[in-house]
């Protein structure tokens, strides 16, 4: 069994307060298509979304990044067509707030996947070298098979993107796929 984990594909991370910009806009159609594909097959889809409180003195990201994905703001809305597919398939998509880079940190993601017999996680979203990377590392440590959709992840920096893809493949044993087909 497999699950699609959509990481932080929100307005703030695409073109809002902490934007990846063009590379993130460029994956909109592919992320939306993968969500639709997984929903139609009846496979698990989890929408994992960063949440912060503004100027939280206890949060380590407060000193690292501009405020982003603040609770109750439209910056936490899913971006573009992904918002649309979420709205139309809400009953089959699980929304999960997270407060750290990894989707597994402080959430019930691992329990949810294990209880459904899911052993393979498909990772998409942003940022390739931050939240996708940290989620992949934790998935690796927890023993999941990892598939990263190269055409559905993006980040601020092209070099960091390429480095992260190499790391997924060479150090985490992930399959890197484009249009669902392995790239190596
Ligand atoms: Zn954050």
Report on the structure:
The chain has helices at residues 11-15, 22-26, 28-41, 80-88, 109-115, 131-141, 158-171; strands spanning 2-7, 44-50, 93-98, 120-126, 145-154, 175-178, 181-182. The longest helix is centred in the N-terminal third of the chain and has 14 residues, at 28-41. The chain starts with a strand and ends with a strand. The radius of gyration is 15 Å and the shape is globular. Strand 4 (120-126), helix 6 and strand 5 (145-154) form a beta-alpha-beta unit. The model has no long low-confidence stretch (mean pLDDT 97). The chain is built from 7 helices and 7 strands; from the N terminus they run βαααβαβαβαβαββ. 35% of the residues lie in helices and 23% in strands. The protein has a 7-stranded mixed beta sheet with strand order 3-2-1-4-5-6-7, with helices on both faces. It has a single domain (2-182), classed as Rossmann fold (3-Layer(aba) Sandwich), CATH 3.40.50.850. It has 184 residues and is α/β, with parallel strands linked by helices. Helix 3 (28-41) packs parallel to helix 4. Residues 50, 52, 61, 68-69 line the site of zinc ion.
